[in-house]
Write a structure and sequence with these properties.
Ferritin, mainly alpha
Length: 194
């Protein structure tokens, strides 16, 4: 059973250059993304209480994402960086969600697979950020996060396989991987995770 996925396109060197050029802004966005990821996992619990097979993992994922927020916030405090005044919409996630099916079951599958793709993209980008760090602690910090995000990408595929036939999950996942590449390539480059 394949739980991981391969992205259709890599993040661009221009994206990494933008992040490294304004790392404070990247940290602010990263903190916001961790808060949103925690809330997203808990929103699945709220919307799908009839799916008990996935609730424990969703709760654990929400807690882990909140712990990541805490870690990023502590890092920001050490560097004298404030949280952003407001959490804006993420154009990447918004564009993906616009492509969801509208039926309850279809949307449930799509949201799980979007979560998988988003986490996988986060892992890829954290790896790039880690590898670009000269500071050993920052290198280590983002290496740990990269492994965690990759694991979350797997978890959401596994959750989908609890409720949907394998072929349907992987066919739809392949479709989402292509849509994610289209969305990513259409976005303006900025110092943000997405």
């Amino acid at each position: 059973m394949k739980l991981n996925l391969d992205l259709a396109c890599p993040s661009s060197p221009e994206w990494l250059a933008a992040v490294l050029q304004d790392f404070d802004a990247f940290l602010q966005d990263h903190a916001d993304c961790e808060r949103k990821a925690s809330a997203m996992a808990m929103s699945f619990v709220a919307k799908y209480p009839d799916r008990p097979a996935i609730i424990p993992e969703l709760i654990a994922t929400a807690i882990e994402e909140l712990e990541h927020f805490q870690q990023v916030y502590e890092l920001m405090q050490q560097r004298g960086i404030a949280l952003a005044h407001s959490m804006g919409e993420d154009p990447y996630v918004k564009a993906l969600i616009k492509r969801c099916h509208s039926g309850r079951e279809e949307r449930f599958l799509d949201r799980l697979l979007i979560a998988s793709v988003v986490e996988t993209r986060g892992a890829e980008r954290f790896r790039l950020v880690s590898e670009a760090q000269e500071d050993r602690e920052m290198h280590r910090f983002y290496k740990i996060l990269w492994a965690s995000e990759a694991k979350h990408g797997h978890i959401f595929v596994k959750m989908a396989l609890n409720y949907f036939e394998r072929g349907r999950v992987y066919d739809r996942l392949a479709w989402w991987i292509e849509r994610e590449a289209e969305v990513l390539q259409g976005l303006a480059i900025r110092s943000a995770l997405h």
